[in-house]
Amino acid sequence: MTGFISTALFTYFLLPLFIFMARIMDVSLGTLRIIFVTRGMKRVAPLFGFFEVLVWLIAISRIMQNLDNWVCYVAYAAGFATGNFVGMFLEEKIAIGHEMIRVITRKDATALVNELRDRGYGVTSVTAQGIEGEVAVIYIIVRRSMVPEVLDLINEYNPRALYTVEAIKYVNKEIFHRSEEERQQGWLTNPMKKIGRR
Description:
Layout: H1 2-5, H2 8-38, H3 44-64, H4 70-94, E1 98-105, H5 110-118, E2 123-130, E3 133-143, H6 147-157, E4 162-168, H7 180-189, H8 192-197
Helix pairs in contact: 2-3, 2-4, 5-6
């Protein structure tokens, strides 16, 4: 075993590969941990932090034992960069938390508001004064997984509307009338409803 560790295959390929993979893991965990902290998830964040530091200690200990191996340095840096990408990719796929979508439009937003409410979204609409006159301001709070669908509706019904999407740390209750599964089932059983509204 000692002889294998001394081989060039282990020193310049397997060890750097291990460091690279460990770095991807700990940075990905760190990225998710920070996101969990900002979302106020007090139970999950410490757990991710524990494994993040544990994996980092294992990786850095290998570096310290091979200070003359420049390939390990490259693997460590490459793992850090890749880990950031992987962490952000995983966070987008998990889509944790809620977002608030604020829409400002000069065009009559009645059709958009009705469509959102028909799909079960909680919508608050108010009239306000913009620099060029009266505007409609719409507030929608949704789970992150629902944001793309809402943005598609905004662009469909009011393509010139201004909208912003903001992360929300805490929501005391769901702001939709029906769950995502119920909404999808409703559209599957009555697919002509949307067509008939246009």
